[in-house]
Amino acid sequence: MRLHSFEHVPFEDLTNIGVWARNRGYVVSHTRWYENDSPPPLSSVDWLVVMGGPMNIYEEDRYPWLAREKTFIADAIAGGKLVLGVCLGAQLIADVLGGPVSRNQFKEIGWFPVSLTASATDSPLLVGLPQEFIAFHWHGDTFQIPPGAVPIASSRGCANQAFIYRNRVAGLQFHLESTPDSVSRLIRHCGGELVEAPFIQSPAEMLAPVDFFLEIEKIMTRLLDNMAQEAQQ
């Protein structure tokens, strides 16, 4: 399996997704848009993972590579590749599938519960996932569920937390790949967003719950294993 990541800033990389992939013997490669990398031929990619970033999907004037990235994502989906989007990555997938992206009522930054929807039980990608879990969040925008996609998760602060499209494409507004180090990097680079608000936690609150990091790694592993299994069908 050849897994390729799209990365938008140096402080948001594959983290535990990369660890999972390498542990299974996958070939892992990257396009770092912030370094003006060019994406590889689509034929060299089996699984595309689109990571997060502080920019918005509609800022193409400031980040011209967003247009090329959206085209590649659309082609990957049309080509039947596995595609996983995290935070900004999920918003980019939603956008290319026709799901508008806009400001959410609240910013969600920190650890907050996510609940799976009733329709989530029908997806083979979600077998073995808990009905409710605490996920890590850092976002201000949200997506509408794209046409043909299935909404699979929600939270108090954000109605549309995740979707699945044709059981080969998943968009997650929340983070399952996070580690204490990756959260520390977010705090260091994006700490200006940490103001008093209903769904924003302090750095101490984000870094203290070690058990939460262990739990999301288990959930992420199960989701990725399910996606890998689906690719063999």
Structure overview:
The chain contains six helices and nine strands, in the order E-H-E-E-H-E-H-E-E-E-E-E-H-H-H. Strands 2-1-3-4-9-8-7-5-6 form a nine-stranded mixed sheet, sandwiched between helices. The chain has helices spanning 16-23, 65-78, 88-96, 180-190, 203-207, 210-231; strands spanning 2-7, 27-32, 47-50, 82-86, 101-116, 132-143, 150-154, 162-165, 169-172. With 233 residues, it is an alpha/beta fold.
Considering the chains and any ligands shown, give keywords for the structure.
single chain, 233 residues, alpha/beta
**Regions with little confidence, pLDDT below 50 for 5+ residues:** none
Strand content: 25-35%
Q: Averaged pLDDT, please? A: 97
Q: How would you sum up the major sheet?
A: 9 strands, mixed
Helical residue percent band: 25-40%
Topology:
Elements: E1 2-7, H1 16-23, E2 27-32, E3 47-50, H2 65-78, E4 82-86, H3 88-96, E5 101-116, E6 132-143, E7 150-154, E8 162-165, E9 169-172, H4 180-190, H5 203-207, H6 210-231
Helix pairs in contact: 2-3
Brief description of this entry?
The chain is an alpha/beta fold and 233 residues long. It has helices spanning 16-23, 65-78, 88-96, 180-190, 203-207, 210-231, and strands spanning 2-7, 27-32, 47-50, 82-86, 101-116, 132-143, 150-154, 162-165, 169-172.
